[in-house]
Design brief:
The protein has 4 domains: about 5-135, 2-Layer Sandwich (TolA/TonB C-terminal domain), CATH 3.30.2420; about 145-225, TolA/TonB C-terminal domain, CATH 3.30.2420.10; about 240-335, TonB (TolA/TonB C-terminal domain); about 340-445, TonB (TolA/TonB C-terminal domain), CATH 3.30.2420.10. It contains 8 helices and 32 strands. A 4-stranded antiparallel β-sheet has the order 5-4-9-10, with helices on one face. A 4-stranded antiparallel β-sheet has the order 18-25-20-21. The protein has about 450 residues and is α+β, with helices and mostly antiparallel strands.
Amino acid sequence: MRTVCRVVCGFVLAGATWLDAQPAAPLQVDFADAILRDWVQPEYPETARQAKLEGKVDVEFVVEPDGRVSRATVKDSTDERFNASALAAVARWVFGPALAEGKPVASGMKVPVVFKLEQLRQKKVPLQPLLEWMPEALPVKPPKLALSPDPDYPAELMDRRLPGQVALEFTVEAEGVASAPKVLWAPHAAFVAAALQTLAKYRFEPAHQGLVPLKSGPTQAQMEFQSLGADRTDLLAANQITVVESEKFAIPPRPSVLPEPVYPLGRLLAGTPGTATVGFTVTGMGKTTAILVQEASQPEFGAALVAAVEAWGFEPALIADQPTEAALVVKYRFTPQAGGEVNRLLLALRPDGVGVNGPGGLDQRLRPLWRVAPVYPQSLVVERPAGQAVIEFVVDREGRARLPRVKSASRDEFGWAAAMAVSQWVFAPPRRGGEPVDVKVGIPFEFTAPRN
């Protein structure tokens, strides 16, 4: 267990005599090893004394949060005649306990208990052992993964066949379970929920310091989601994307980040379907550029699809194993769904619905697990204006951000970019009175033109 001190102090100025009158700065210790306070020398075994034997007993033990010694065991010994005396002495020692996050905790320790014949000639027992015979903390063994079930592929993405990777960071508790997860990367919000559900089933051999299991973190894991039977061509077709002059490429582009566009809320509430077709280029770096609306049944459908394509990412096309740019076209159909979570929320938001309350009275403040930043609209990079947008949306009872609506925006493009970002967010499921609830919230965004 490492020792780290956080010291609160002032600046020291040469020649500043006023410092002499200042009170000492408080020392706040967050993490520390146990420290020996009261020590007794072991009794020399009579049989060993008579035989004029010297010896050493390596003892491991636990210092409890109150400083007492427990669970002392002999790990090695030069002669078993010394063992009982060594254990009896160690059991009487008292420590200042180890600290973790500023609180006393149990810790594993080791010590060589040494027996020298010269101890029999001592006129006065020392107050503590020699430095080389002082107790010290045992090394901490990191946690090990014991059970890691495969994640279930999200049902909502079955038709789209998207592959995905989710990178997680979390704490491994002393009980061997994961807690406090953070999402480091995810290509789609649906993968986040599936990964967190799977992480809850993971089991670990927790970190150990001798006999003491420890809470440890951060630990990282990556989960893979594969849709069986989907090569690059099938994956593009499943998402209504075609490659222009596909015969040019040995390997076509492969989608890696492909969130669906935001359905304009007014059209969705009215049950109005729509279509939009957008052409774009995937560069040799896998970025989307040259994005242009080719057709849209309503302007907002085209704007929504453009914002989505700007957020997409690809593995680039290859010619002779070299990444190269490729022109693509996507045609997207906006179709209201008859059931599911989105439809349940739409019914609540209709004029005759039950409505969705704000975040007041939640058991805990909304805690984001995964957020992406808006993409600065490519259509504005020449003009490079700054801008703002306010997005209203619902965090459903499972923590997914749903039904984003542009409440205000200095430019329409900023509004769609912000709504597209919000549609990918995931929160810890909100609760009120212990029960899962839906929550309506709003959030402002500020846009600054990118440097490059």
